[in-house]
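Illustration: Multifunctional methyltransferase subunit TRM112-like protein.
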Amino acid sequence: MRLLTYNFLQCPKTKTFPLILEPTQVETIETEYNKEFILRMIPRLDWNLVRQVSRQFAFGELPQVAPKESTEDEETFRLLHKMLLETHIKEGVLKSQDGTIYPIKDGIPNMLITQVNDE
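Result:
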């Protein structure tokens, strides 16, 4: 699961966002740099969550406000590309605020809610 995907996941049970990410295996898979894609994605991202994940994964501090134009700091766009598109969570868990746990296995988050019938 790319960190970009993480920014869009919410708990299917409670509809709460964001989930708490606890990775146990992280992998970097290099991809061709695409500044225009990053620029188009920025308005769709929860910028506070992006900044939090940047600190959690030791990418460094991002600006308080999301960049809006391609003329802004190139280093920020490259950092966002590396973080959002090249960083993959292979194993770990996502936790909702109510304690529901969603496992990540082989890079795929299992967001299905298993209900137990008490009959």
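Reading the tokens back as a structure: The beta strands are 20-28, 87-95, 101-105, 108-109.
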